[in-house]
Amino acid sequence: MTFEKHVAIDFSKVKPSVMKMNGISETTMTEHFKLYNGYVNKYNECMEKTDALGVDAVKAGQITYSDIRSLKMGLAFALGGTINHEVYFHNLGGVGGKPSGLLEKQIEKDFGSYERFEAEFRGTAMAARGWAFLVWQHDLKRLIVVIGDDQSTFPPHNSHLVLACDVYEHAYYLDHKTARAAYLDAYFKNVDWKDAESRFEHSIKH
Ligand SMILES: [Fe+2]
After folding, report:
1. What is the pLDDT of residues 43-81, one digit of tens each?
2. Alpha carbon separation from 105 to 24, 91, 128, 142 (Å, rounded)
3. If you measure from the C-alpha of residue 113 to the centroid of ligand 1, how many angstroms do you get, rounded to a whole number?
4. pTM, full prediction
5. From the CA of 61, how far away is ligand 1's center (Å)?
6. How far apart are the CA of 198 and the centre of ligand 1, in A?
7. How many angstroms is it from 56 CA to the middle of ligand 1?
């Protein structure tokens, strides 16, 4: 078996604009990167420990407790936490406004208007216990907004992440205390729609 460790992205260097945002402070981002690094480390650990299990231990799956169950549960959470945060950080550091190009057209087709989409995304973010996502659903061939109640629930299979919004309190408490709606105002002021557009264009090609 070969396993290549996932290396955490240093967003302060890859995308320095995320350190100078309006309404989401550098301190929040610095602390947030620490949590993201934790998910990357746990993803690597789960993969390495799974590879190291002997075949008897791998086969000894059991629903109440078994090593393979613990590792697979941890893997889903850690990999979700890794990918969710990477998309979220890439999605930030922009100038807000509205999307353009193919994403704009698809949003208008699937939601009626950008305004309707943003209202639904904000409402979903207020209702979520962890994340709001805009995804391209490959089977339905449409964009949908879905809730994430933690790092690994509930986006359906065959969904490609276009836009992610972290609504865990660590994403905004330092800047907005418990005022999640104010954080969402800041989020939309800092969305990098070019990044979301390129994710969407990639997803419809593959
Ligand atoms: Fe987070």
Report:
1. 999 999 999 999 999 999 999 999 999 999 999 999 999
2. 29, 19, 26, 12
3. 29
4. 0.97
5. 31
6. 22
7. 36
